[in-house]
Specification:
Elements: H1 2-15, E1 21-23, H2 26-47, E2 51-53, H3 54-72, H4 74-93, H5 95-120, H6 133-141, H7 153-169, H8 182-211, H9 215-240, H10 244-260, H11 264-270, E3 277-279, H12 285-305, E4 309-311, H13 312-335
Antiparallel strand pairs: 1-4, 2-3
Length: 345
Amino acid sequence: SAVSNILIIVAATVIFSGETHLALDWRPVTRDCAFYAVSIAFVMGVMWDGKVYWWEGVVSVCLYLGYVGFMTINGSAMDWMERVARGFRRRTLGNKIASFREETREETDDLERSVVELSLSPEDDKVGGNDGTVDDEDEANNPFAVPDDWRKYPMWALSLPWYATFTVTVPDCGKTGWERWYLLSFFSSVLWISAISYGMVDAAAVVGCVLDVPEVVMGALVLAAGTSVPDALSSVSVAQAGQGDMAVANAVGSNVFDIWLGLGLPWLVFLPARGGFEEVSTAQLWPSVCILAGVLLVYYASLVFTGFRLKRSMGYAYVLVYGLFVVYSVVGVWWMDVYDLRRGK
């Protein structure tokens, strides 16, 4: 999912944000890419000998806790990065040029913040009454309401049992009187995500076995793309609200979570009962590491080249790069079986 997270989520964010480009702050982008690069190097180091030990799960979880701890001092870290960059610019460009760029950037940032605040501020004409608008919105957001368009009916009918189940088991802490139940809502959601993810992985393994598709291909394409859809939708919504930095951070930061906690926690929990280690295939180690590092390099270098302005054309380019990854997975890994994944079958 690391490849689809960066390429597809970031591409969807800028393409469907409604803007021609998103102006990003270089500091959080650099921070997230640096942590992601460290996590890639960590995975390579763990799987280098073909074995994963339980204590490496401990290290992985501790690294993620360190990442979370860093976020508690994120403001100070961002200020330090800005001071370092300012000093570098002054030494290389001269005091006058650096001062002019700083003033221009501050004015631009102030203008962008004003535009965002203006776009998010409530409209004055809503004070006098809503004329039933709120009721209409509630009716439109009601999942149990029968859709007017017949083409939406099949999907609504398939989703209706899930709507009913979630309504009963997950408290809506956004409603009045349910605000204190947010912890129950959170853990109920986590349990449902875990159960659905387990079922999705098991179903993908069965389908792959029936169609003779390697598990690596099913995981890299079907499961990875499926898990990226919710993140893509949330990033698009955040970008439309004017928070481009947060939308992009969601894509890269989720990769750090997937590697350090998504892999490390299962290693820590299950490997002690399996002899303390698990053998893993290293046939795709170097190609996978090169792909992850290459995608990260393409992403960060493209932002540096454009002055950290995420343009819509870059989004289409990211989709093209992901298409090349799909071709590699289907043609090379599956059809040509360059890693002998079917050996012994």
